[in-house]
Amino acid sequence: MIRPCLRNLVLSVAMTCLIIPPLPATNSDLPDIGSPGDSVLSRDREVQIGRSIYRSLIDTDRVMSDPEIQEYVQDIGQKLATQAHDGDFQFNFFIVNDNAINAFALPGGYIGIHSGLILASNSESELAGVMAHEISHVTQRHISRAVYANQRNSILSMAAMLGAILLGAAGGSSDAITGAIVTAQGVTAQQQINFTRANEYEADRVGVGVLAAAGFDPEGMPAFFETLARQTGPLASQAPEFLRTHPVTVNRIAETRERAASLPRPEVQDAAGYSLTKARIRVLTSSTPEKALEFFLGEQQNPKSIGNLGTDYGIALARMELSQYDIACDQFRNLRAAHPGIIPFHTGQANAELALGNRDQAFAIFDQATALFPRNVPLTVHYAEALLANGNAKKAHHILLDLLNNVPPTAKQVRLIALAASAAGDTAEAHYYMAELHLIKGDATMAADQLRLALSIPGLNSVQRARFNARLEQIQEWVDREQKARRQNNGNAQ
Length: 494
Prior knowledge:
Radius of gyration: 24 Å
Shape: flat
Structural class: mainly alpha
Number of helices: 24
Strand content: under 5%
Strand order of the largest sheet: 1-3-2
Helix content: 55-70%
Number of strands: 3
């Protein structure tokens, strides 16, 4: 068995070596990237590959599905993405449960951030700086440019290598990982290595501009590079340089700092969500709740942490994990009273009240919160989970359907509405929602099967039957396009 820390390193390194995605830039000072790479790797094909790899990560249970964490990172990512492209790509930001300090871009606009990177960051601008760097890999179309520059190394072979590394990392197979790395070393020429290093510098330069345009402190990027340089351990130094995820040099730090100095530097305060997200990640990823509580109690004694809501929130969350519901409930009640505009304090107290058996009080808090913050995804998800756990599947289905009809869904949200529909006796609708879940995960074949099951349920009304058939036709058209693109890509690779 390969050691867990080495599995984490190899997984993150492999991703970043193969990830260099696309999108036309809008800033006038950016280099003219042209479109020759489209002849080798189209944007549609990039999306297909990125979706497939993302699905593999979900299947290996590496992607964190916590709604508060997902909402925060998606909000930060979209704030940056609006400054970086013309809308041709739909970015998808997600957290990988991995203590390594790393982030990566996948083809088609899938951006992953390791939980360890968020914990290692010291400010929201540092986190945003890393995300801006990865977004810039996408907007500069680095994968298509890399494939175009070295057409003999087909994207299929690169994707296959990445798949081997992912499977090896998930299953602990050192042979699979070693074999994949040897393959990478065998097919990657020095020219390609240099090309990748050039991509890193370009992503730095473009990313700093994106960071500043989105209203963050542009110094966040070089500041985090320095953090990265300080925390590069002996394990990272054992890997060949071209396999390291983000080789940080003095020159890179100096160049990004010089670029940042030429841009406006606004007075930026970290949003409350930053410290709350760090606290939530620490509790969820700690080996034991006791260790998480010990950390936050220690932080409480740190003068620099005075007034840090994340510390108080982390203590309350850790006490919930330790089943100290009465203490946690008091803490959440105080936080909610002092900061009524922060949604996690409402859900925290409501869940604590439920754990204490105070159902009426808990659902009163949920009802009040949903009136104050309508269609907030984490709030609605927690409310629906509480309703399901207390036998009110029909209401859970109702509020989740309202959310689904108005807000782009997450996988957890769709899975939950499928459970709610099934528990409420709406079997056909449950199959329909499961089809949507499979689509989110990139499996159109399973989605079509679920729709056929939905159509086979007796008693469908005319509206349901028409809706299910229309969706099935859409999916079949999508499958046909995917198969055509795959055949064309296989022909180009031969």
